[in-house]
Amino acid sequence: MNSPVAFKDFADLDFARLPLKISTERYHSPEWQEKERRAIWMKTWQIVGRADELPNSGDYKVYSLLDQSWIVARGQDGKLRGFVNACRHRGNALCEGKGHAGRFTCQYHMWTYGLDGRLLAVARPDLVPDIDKAEHTLVEVPVDTFAGFIFLNPDRDAQPLAEFMTRDVMEGLAPYKLDEMTPVGMDVREELDCNWKVVMDAFSEGYHILGVHPELLAVIDLEPAAATWGFYGDHRTAGSPFEVKNADVCSVEQQVEAIRSLPSTFPSVAEVLPTFEAMIAPHLSADGTYAFPAGESVRTILQKATRQTLTAKGMDVSGLTDDQMSDSRGWFFFPNFFMTIRAGEATTILMTPHPSGDPNKCIWHVTAYMWLPEPLRQQYRAELVEVKEKGSYPYFLALQQDYDQMERQQRGLRNEGLTHISLSQEEFCVAQFHANIDKYVSRAG
Ligand code: FES
Ligand SMILES: [Fe+2]
């Protein structure tokens, strides 16, 4: 079974096309942030939640970005719709947070709207005798779903979501069954003292593993030649195999230990470990070393154990390759969504600028997803945690390391004496992200 989409090798990456120098202004200047607001945030599809957060007609939530806000509501026909969060009378904000309603009644002068945005009634109709109700529906914006996520686009003339996401992204992710995954263990939102792009950059490269996550060196092959990339529209994927072939770097026994420690970053591996241990046990010699038969390795055994465990749990893994059983791939949806995904689990990071408009701050929303059989999904669903006190949330090790690093980077970037940063070839995806940003900003003029 091959992946349904084609990946590129390091040698195929076109470095001539992308600038490896990036101005630092875009990380701290309010003027640049305003450019992004107009060119990117008001023009692109962005994830505003999960479809199963709003399962019933009448369920709604507000999506806010900088000083803008929209309502996403499920109508009586079961369809999700998006509206500008403003009453058509004198503009009062209609909704806050999340909830359930049969209709939306504005608190100010009691105009009432249906879940489909139609103006149903006005208070004292004798005072507005000539109102054309069809002219005063809530302002609708495009909403659609993909992979279980609700996407909204503030631009009423936006291209369809499927076109924006591209067929490659949709087909590449379909076998993972992300739409059947549930937040388990971690769903957390917190303010960070860095620009939103600092976070996107950090999750766009593996170069920092050397400095920030040394414990992953025993698990992931960091040679750029071992990695594979895919670029589809404005989006991309990149992944390195979970295997260190060079025994001088990491012995087989060290690799076994590294797999045993994986659950701290990839919680689903915990349920695979008993099968993995049973499969490696026969190959343990008296001197404590492992000798696997030809064609078998720590990696292939982890793959077999994962396939067996997920199948026993009830997940259809027939569309997933052996590589996808072990390796975690990074997927990036422009502009602000990153996830690592492997068979049975994903961790997603959604970045938004800070509501105050301060470009030195942002909000990150990190969620761990796991595939569970349908009857267990509600029971294990994680509640959203809004972190108020800095440093109080217990992120898993790799995430905590990134969290600390990103704020440190912003403290350097905001120095006016530093005019630009320079990227290595390994940071090709960082360069590609910023080239995309430039494309949108220059398009908006
Ligand atoms: S502003 Fe909503 S009814 Fe007046
Ligand atoms: Fe990291």
Q: What do these coordinates show?
A:
- By secondary structure, the protein is an alpha+beta fold.
- It folds into three domains: 1-43 and 176-247 and 320-445, Naphthalene 1,2-dioxygenase Alpha Subunit, Chain A, domain 1 (Alpha-Beta Complex), CATH 3.90.380.10; 46-157, Rieske Iron-sulfur Protein, CATH 2.102.10.10; 252-319, no CATH class.
- 28% of the residues lie in helices and 24% in strands.
- It has helices at residues 25-28, 30-41, 161-165, 167-173, 196-202, 209-212, 252-261, 269-280, 298-313, 322-326, 374-380, 397-413, 428-444; strands at residues 8-9, 21-23, 46-50, 59-65, 68-74, 80-84, 98-100, 104-105, 112-113, 119-121, 140-141, 143-146, 149-152, 181-192, 228-232, 235-239, 329-333, 337-342, 345-353, 362-371, 385-386, 420-422.
- The protein has a nine-stranded mixed β-sheet with strand order 1-15-16-17-18-19-20-14-21. Strands 7-4-5-6-11 form a five-stranded antiparallel β-sheet, with no helix packed on it. A three-stranded antiparallel β-sheet has the order 3-13-12, with no helix packed on it.
- The longest helix is centred in the C-terminal third of the chain and has 17 residues, at 397-413.
- The chain starts with 7 loop residues before the first strand and ends with a helix.
- The model has no long low-confidence stretch (mean pLDDT 94).
- It binds FE2/S2 (inorganic) cluster and fe (ii) ion.
- FE2/S2 (inorganic) cluster binds next to loops.
Helical residues, percent:
25-40%
Strand order of the largest sheet: 1-15-16-17-18-19-20-14-21
What is the count of DSSP helices, taking H or I runs of 4+ residues? 13
**What assembly state would you assign to the polypeptide chains in this entry?**
single chain
Structural class category:
alpha+beta
